[in-house]
Each structure stands twice: as C-alpha cells, then as structure tokens.
Amino acid sequence: MPRNMTTVSVSLSDEMSAAVERLAEAGGYDTASEYICDLIRRDFDRQVLRAVLEDGRLSAQDEPMTARTLQSLRDRARLSARDHGGAKQ
Fold first, then answer.
1. What are the pLDDT digits (tens) for 25-62?
2. How many Å apart are CA 45 and CA 16, to the nearest integer?
3. What residues contact 73, with CB distance under 8 A and at least 6 apart?
4. What is d(CA 15, CA 59) in angstroms, rounded to the nearest whole number?
5. At what angle do helices 32-58 and 14-26 cross, to 10 degrees?
6. What is the DSSP letter of 59?
7. Which 8-state DSSP code applies to residue 26?
8. Helices (DSSP H) in 1-89: which residue ranges?
9. Minimal CA–CA distance to 39: which of 54, 50, 23?
10. Checking phi first, is residue 60 left (phi over 0); if not, alpha (psi -120 to 50) or beta?
11. Model confidence pLDDT, tens digit, residues 71-89
12. Closest by alpha carbon to 71, among 43, 52, 58?
C-alpha cells in the first residue's frame, strides 16, 4: 500500500513524452508514472551511494577497496535509501 501520494505535473515535449511511454512499456512498467518514479528512486540511490563513498574516502581508513568492501558500501547505501524513502529492495 503506497504512502501518501502527491500528484506532480511535468511538461514534456511530444518527443520526450513518446520516448517515456516507449521506455516505460519496454521496461515492463504499467504506466509512465511508475517508470518516472523508478528513475527518481534510482537517482536518489545513486546520490546516497555517492555520499557513502565520499564518507568512506574522507574517513582516511587504510582498508583497501576490495569487492567485499564495495558490497558493504552498497548494502549501507541501500539501507540508507530505504530508510529515507528511496528504492525498495
């Protein structure tokens, strides 16, 4: 069940609107709105991941960036995004 929802109107050119419809259908979304919401969630997740990576960089730890370390950062970013309304995992 969705949380409180707000409707936002966005003006798109005819070409952009057609592209959104095509991409939504090709991506298996039921509506263009679902597609756009997913784009926003993914952008939010990227921003969270960038912030986590920057925090790690600034922490000046001597831990090498291994696949395990990177996965740990991804997991932290997903949890943070979920806690702040980002993509549901």
1. 999 999 999 999 999 999 999 998 888 888 877 876 66
2. 24
3. 49, 52, 53, 56
4. 45
5. 80
6. T
7. H
8. 14-26, 32-58, 67-83
9. 23
10. left
11. 888 888 888 887 776 554 4
12. 52
